[in-house]
């Protein structure tokens, strides 16, 4: 486990280094880049930035200053929003974790179920219908499925709210507040999950079919075990392993998808913050979001390794 | 090769995908003739619904022809998908081949790089790159390339590792051929099938990525793109569903077509691979 921790720290340090050079590779003056290029930044602020980051000093001094800041979790200051970048991100993080976490759980659950259902009668009409739907959603951009869901469930049927995190200006009890947030979350979570449901359904199906050809499955059947027993305890348990690996890989994709989903649904999370930062050319915020999201992905990957070792005792954490 | 074509033609999905992709290619190629004024030209009143007057798919908020935008956008999507995939393939194949063939610390460094790029959330990285280097065709292609090459490198490396100790490679090595010749003339042709399949699927991913970038307003401001139309008109979706609907449909059809082709290629190339490996 120690090795993995060290590796995770190295990766995080490399991401910080990457950020550092990204700003300096950008066209124009790094101070301008960090202040936001659209010309709204005043001279005094630029001069201040130049001094803070030592931009008139050699690159090694700059790197030292930068490293010191990162270690202190100082991700810079957003001149536009007049707040430290880290404060802005931490304020928005819970909404994003709720969105991506729910979408992740939902897509795994539904995807694996559909995959199992599909593989249990491979070649039948049910299998074909699920495979076709998975293929379709795998080809659908999430911003488009999100817009269609708003159109159908919010505009035409008027069942669910399409924008925001909760109703504003209504007094509610604690329980009503939970229901209210949940109602607001249905469409964004579904939008983000659809694409990954398709992926997990396809993966589970392929993995199940592969495992079901192995010898120990034949043995289990020959022993006279019920189909259901073989399906769940022998095939599914082994078929799940590659899916956990992929789930770890997809965490980054889910968080990336939240930029698009939060933009569509006005969900007050980190993704929306990134979108606003892009529009306002507030690069210190954008790079801060990039850094924090990468760190989260690294941490989740560490956790996946843990889960992997729990599910499959043959794997040792070195 | 004949077997591959026969195999491919036998898959219904592959034929359907090929047909759909052909339609999109014809759309892209015919755009300058059907809509010579270009996608930015105002042709009627704003907010015209589909099938009004001579406008099959209606107009957008400024009275621009949605059909013209979709036809011209087809060219942009295919171009960006192809170019960035080609660039990612060149980088991925080169680095993967070197890592797998040379091995040792070079392999470790290169695979560390691959792992690093696969850890960073790729869409966020693409957004950051395009935003910082200012949205343009070059920046978009560059960003998509940067996030797409690592899986190729990993795939090619694995293939090269398994090929390195084969007899035909050792024979070539003993006969004094240079490393470059062995990599590109001996091993690479034998690893092509999985690379071709991965490459075809990557075009689809690249098109999806580009559409998401331009949806967020990070498209090249001089190029009409499907994602851009949807992003620009999403705020008026309640009044004008067609502005977002048809460009999205175009994306789905194109990406679906390419995925179908990739799957059919996979099915067509794999039986042969297995036959070769079993010595048949």
SSE blueprint and pairings:
The complex is a heterodimer of chains A (318) and B (280).
Chain A: H1 2-25, H2 30-35, H3 43-52, H4 59-71, E1 77-78, E2 83-84, H5 85-120, H6 125-138, H7 142-156, H8 174-211, H9 215-222, H10 227-265, H11 270-280, H12 283-311
Antiparallel strand pairs in A: 1-2
Chain B: H1 2-10, H2 12-34, H3 66-102, H4 104-119, H5 122-132, H6 137-164, H7 167-174, H8 179-215, H9 226-233, H10 241-277
Quick summary of this structure?
Chain A has 318 residues and is mostly helical. In chain A, 76% of the residues lie in helices and 1% in strands.
Keywords:
heterodimer, A: 318 residues, mainly alpha, two-stranded antiparallel sheet, 12 helices, B: 280 residues, MetI-like fold, 76% helix, disordered C terminus
Describe the fold and architecture.
The complex is a heterodimer of chains A (318) and B (280). By secondary structure, chain A is mainly alpha-helical. Chain A is built from twelve helices and two strands, in the order H-H-H-H-E-E-H-H-H-H-H-H-H-H. Chain A has a two-stranded antiparallel sheet. In chain A, strand 1 and strand 2 form a beta hairpin. The longest helix of chain A is centred in the last third of the chain and has 39 residues. Chain A starts with a helix and ends in a 7-residue tail after the last helix. The mean pLDDT of chain A is 82. Chain B has a domain of 183 residues: MetI-like fold (Orthogonal Bundle). Chain B is elongated and about 75 Å long. The two termini of chain B are 16 Å apart. Chains A and B meet through helix 1, helix 6, helix 7, helix 10 and helix 11 of A and helix 4, helix 5, helix 8, helix 9 and helix 10 of B.
Q: What distance separates the N and C termini of chain A?
A: 5 Å
β-strand amount of chain A: under 5%
Rg from alpha-carbon coordinates of chain B:
22 Å
Number of strand elements of chain A:
2
Q: Any guess at the CATH architecture of the domain at 73-255 in chain B?
A: Orthogonal Bundle
- Supply the CATH class of the domain at 73-255 in chain B: Mainly Alpha
Give the biggest beta sheet of chain A.
Answer: 2 strands, antiparallel
- The residue ranges of chain A in which pLDDT falls below 50 over 5 or more consecutive positions are none
